[in-house]
Design a protein that fits this description.
By secondary structure, this protein is α/β, with parallel strands linked by helices. 20% of the residues lie in helices and 29% in strands. A 7-stranded mixed beta sheet has the order 2-5-8-13-16-18-19. The structure holds coenzyme A.
Amino acid sequence: MSDPMRPIRFILFSILLQRPFRGLLDCLWDEGMSMNDWGRHLAVAKNRLMRWGGMAVEPGAFLASGIQVTLPSQCNIWVNTGSFIGKNCFFGNQAPITLGRGCLVANDVRFLTASHRTEDLVYEAKPVTVGDGVWIGAGALILPGVCVGRGCIVGAGSVVTKDLPEFTVCVGNPCRPVRTRALPVRQNMVDGRPLTFEA
Ligand SMILES: CC(C)(COP(=O)(O)OP(=O)(O)OC[C@H]1O[C@@H](n2cnc3c(N)ncnc32)[C@H](O)[C@@H]1OP(=O)(O)O)[C@@H](O)C(=O)NCCC(=O)NCCS
């Protein structure tokens, strides 16, 4: 059955995420990063609009400006509470992309979900899952079908081609673990709430 909200979502995303409106709105939204009262109100308003537009952003998450979403009306993206998405991140929306609680996604990270089989170039879409408390460094590329384990750190510019084990620091192209993070891990989410993983 066709989704009656689809045209509305499409229009909202066009206003929120496409030029020429976004330049103006982005200035306001980035103010939310300061996390003062005014900024918090802006972040809450933006998250509500994003939810209406088809990107499920939980309260307490923060999205910076310049985010690009393909096929926005498909509603495949979930950003959990306490997570931060930096400027100019790209979400290929052909299959679900799920970000856990308290994730920190730096600028210019790209999440891809669409690919083609190497044998015959048949199109296929695969989901991307990012666990709780993951930090993804600037400019990393996350390929379709990958799961990033909770508490993982992905180095800047890495190309993540396979699943990454939890509580590891992973770098490079292809991205591989170089060491593990000692448990317990204690870090803060973007809204200041603590996120702890016990041993
Ligand atoms: C992943 C990261 C956190 C690792 O930091 P670290 O624990 O201090 O690691 P080190 O600097 O000791 O590096 C360990 C090894 O990994 C390599 N390495 C580190 N980061 C790398 C990266 N992004 N890509 C490829 N290799 C990397 C180092 O060269 C080193 O290799 P060596 O042992 O052969 O000398 C850090 O390098 C990084 O990429 N930070 C992201 C910064 C960022 O994106 N900031 C944006 C604001 S959120």
